[in-house]
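Structural prep section.
Before we set up the soaks we want a predicted structure of the protein with MTE in place, mainly to decide which crystallisation condition to try first. Input record follows.
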Amino acid sequence: MFIHKIDPLAPQGGRETPEKVFRSRRKWLLAAGGGALAAAAGYGIYSGLQGKDEDVIAAGLWSPEAEAKYGALYPVPRDKRFEYGRPQTAEAAAARHTNFFEFSSLKWCWKYVGPFQPDPWTLSITGLCRQPLRLDLDEFHRRFQSEMVERQYRHRCVEKWAMAVPWTGVPLAAVLQAADPLAQATHVRFTSFERPAEAPIQATKSKFPWPYTEGLTLAEAMNELPFIAVGVYGRPLLKQHGAPIRVVVPWKYGYKSAKSIVAIELVGSEPATFWNSINPSAYPFESNVDPDVPRPWDQSFERMLGSNEQRPTKKFNGYERYVAGLYPAHESRL
Ligand SMILES: Nc1nc2c(c(=O)[nH]1)N[C@H]1C(S)=C(S)[C@@H](COP(=O)(O)O)O[C@H]1N2
Ligand SMILES: [Mo]
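Run finished without errors. Recording the tokens verbatim:
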């Protein structure tokens, strides 16, 4: 219970995590070198890790030239169908507490993202499709600019912290349609970057199966909710939120939303994923937010970043009417 206990930012300092589950995560954290950092840290540098709001945000900015260029996109129209149903999380509170294991096994990744360069960047959309695409950031923006919207989404991490943040981007379905999937495609696989020179945990000797990968069924991917985000809070994605481009899947636990992706592939079977290959029973492929599905640890409530407000967990994170049709077994119980 060591690492979570010294984590001042986790809900209840992570203390609600049962020891057994925690141990299995800790094994990996230690393997990744997080243990040494944790040992060196301790309570003494609490406030340094918290950081001032402006420092936490400044740490995630790209070069001034790139900020000016991609910042010119904003604001974009808001997709008014989506509302938080709760207060929006403060920008700095969201930026301060992030999960980005390429940079840190703890939560203050903003401290380590400095060397990371989100520009230039290339995203490929390949696999079982008629129109494979390879787009740099300019090409991505040019291609999808007219469809860009802001969506206010709830986000729920399996560690029980939650946030409500405004993403800017395009529906994943629009990106996939541009690639024109073949009938044999059944799943979509996302791959994050691999750059040990810019991401310290990738440079350490660890058993993490880099690069970070995630996936969805094609039916889930074509639902209107999954989002490819290039911005958050009306500016280009801060580095610690997965610059320059990431996935957002709001009805699933947060680890399904791969950050800083370089590839989207249409494939013909369920792809292996990062956390699932580390611990299949704790991180199943489907991973819908659901307080009733047994997990090794309690999922009945969540805590909002910043305010620490506690809320009951909602099935499908409250997006039931958009996605229940994807899961007929669930629908028949309605
Ligand atoms: N590449 C990559 N993507 C990732 C992760 C990660 O460690 N690496 N963490 C996941 C987890 S556990 C969560 S909760 C969300 C967190 O997104 P945020 O840090 O921007 O809030 O990103 C997900 N995507
Ligand atoms: Mo998470």
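Observations: Residues 99, 157-159, 254-255 surround molybdenum atom (ligand 2) (CB under 6 Å).
Flagged for discussion at group meeting.
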